[in-house]
């Protein structure tokens, strides 16, 4: 797995991303940050699936999504949405970005599992079925409040996940796929050791393959090609501290001891080529030394977990699958892909992307850091940007008058807010255990990180007789890029922000050539 996220074909494709449960939502957050850095496809259609709509992961990714869209809209208005924030992000569910498999029961005051399957009705109409239900489910499972999620019991979730097949938006997704002439792929991500993700992954794959069956007054829609369906299976990558008490409803609580057990029980479903759920490719992601979360909460806004590098790798898996355009041959599917991490704390060499993509990502980090230290310091507004840029060479080459910076303040503000969220995400990854050593985002304020120390693992200021770099060192690389361009204006500024920062990073943070190594 060595994704090329710069190819022209990839940059014209559409990714339909299904975020299943909390882990899927956190992987979506990573995916949005990659899109903000200019590494996404042409379009990203998003569907979040979770019965716990107050989940902190859902709230958090919703905020990132809103910030991304605001930045892209302001840049598009200024004719500058072709470098960063180039990916159009669309909600697959028009009314709400989150689909809940128990949403149809929202009018019911009782959201217990037993009420959701009409257990009382069974006593009158099907007593044998009611007895079987009681035998298969313990009392605490029967009484669990589904509004807090499926709590590590995927068998409960599967009962409700099949409602996806009857949703109008699901039929629309398949119709759009068939009308896109092969440029669309589906990718689902979720944990196989928890509740919602483990329940949804098999159902989503089969539903996409089966399509929508003939219904009275409606047309049948054939399913998607297996070669265009991918999935990231997240193995246990975190543990939970001892809980403070039992759930209020007496229902089950996810337990560390069951994580590995649940994963081991789920994996055979995806390893049997004859009976697997129907995806064309599986990306299996995990960590041999899971991180302990700070809190053990059932769900809701209290379940606020910090970002983890495994979620970034799941997002990169989705982009890798999109870059491939899916898989090639139906008769040898599914394909299983894996990537190894060679150290206790992964870094640039562990990223499953090619060298060209790594160069682009380094440049994007330089652009983000320069923007958040000079143009919108720490996400806020500078005192007088026009005065600070007086006499700077690239502004003259791009024919940018001083009024540009006030006229485009809405776009600059929106980019600053979105990229500040990206910085906070990078900071969580860097301060995690294990840490992801990409950007030295250890400080809460970007202006506290020196430019020459930004990209980790590639030296420090003063090497080879160099003095430490600052923002004006970056501007010198921008001058070179600006001199090569015929066009001017704010759109050209965003292009120079990308290309000039990449030029600086190639010079300041180069990759050492290995004997016999060729460009990927």
Describe this structure in words.
The chain is an alpha/beta fold and 520 residues long. The protein has two domains: 10-50 and 84-339, Rossmann fold, CATH 3.40.50; 355-508, no CATH class. It is 42% helix and 9% strand. It has 18 helices and ten strands. It has helices spanning 21-36, 56-77, 113-116, 119-125, 127-136, 139-142, 154-161, 168-178, 196-210, 256-271, 309-324, 355-375, 385-388, 393-397, 404-407, 409-431, 471-483, 490-508, and strands at 14-20, 43-49, 88-91, 98-99, 184-191, 229-234, 238-239, 281-285, 291-292, 335-337. Strands 1, 2, 3, 4, 5, 6, 8 and 10 form an eight-stranded parallel beta sheet that branches. The longest helix is centred in the last third of the chain and has 23 residues, at 409-431. 46% of the residues are buried. The model is unreliable at 514-520 (pLDDT under 50).
Q: Biggest sheet: strands, sense, closure?
A: 8 strands, parallel
Give unreliable regions as ranges.
514-520
Query: CATH class of the largest domain, anyone?
Result: Alpha Beta
Give the helices and strands as they follow along the chain.
Answer: EHEHEEHHHHHHEHEEHEEHEHHHHHHH
Number of helices: 18
CATH-defined fold name of the largest domain: Rossmann fold
**What is the CATH-assigned architecture of the largest domain?**
3-Layer(aba) Sandwich
Number of strands: 10
What is the total number of structural domains? 2
* Strand percentage: 5-15%
Q: Taking Cα atoms only, what radius of gyration do you get, to the nearest Å?
A: 24 Å
What structural class results from the helix and strand content? alpha/beta
**Span between N and C termini?**
12 Å
How much helicity do the residues have? 40-55%
The 3D shape can be described as elongated
Average residue-wise pLDDT: 85
